[in-house]
Amino acid sequence: MLKYMFISVVLDPGSIDSSRALSMVLTHFGFKKVQRAVWESTVINSGRILQLKREMDRVTDYYDKIRMYQFPVDGLFEITFLSQKKWRRCLIKPELVHAKSKE
């Protein structure tokens, strides 16, 4: 079963050509532009994430930077970023135990 998730993509393109190409890729995948360099989607599923990353990697160069915020990914918050043509990711687990407030 495919899971839908919320994804926000923040772009810092190194050139106008990269900016246009990334905009076309994100539009093709159903993202909506919500701010100058921020795109969001709630209709993308986990099966299309790898396709999206491959397409973005195809149209970027060494100077482009991309940051993706994804939730939920198996109950985790995932931050994925592209910098210098390398993808990296960070998984954040929600706190299960709440600290008691001091009185």
What does this structure look like?
With 103 residues, this protein is of the alpha+beta class. 26% of the residues lie in helices and 44% in strands. It has helices spanning 16-28, 46-59; strands at 4-12, 32-35, 38-45, 65-73, 76-83, 86-92. Strand 2 and strand 3 form a beta hairpin. The longest helix is centred in the middle third of the chain and has 14 residues, at 46-59. It starts with a strand and ends in an 11-residue tail after the last strand.
- What spatial order of strands do you see in the largest sheet? 2-3-1-4-5-6
Low-confidence region ranges: 97-103
Number of helices: 2
Mass-distribution shape: globular
Structural class: alpha+beta
Distance between the termini: 46 Å
Percent helix, as a range, is: 25-40%
Secondary-structure blueprint:
Layout lengths: L3 E9 L3 H13 L3 E4 L2 E8 H14 L5 E9 L2 E8 L2 E7 L11
Helix pairs in contact: 1-2
Task: Name some characteristics of this structure.
globular; 103 residues; alpha+beta
TL;DR of this structure?
By secondary structure, this protein is of the alpha+beta class.
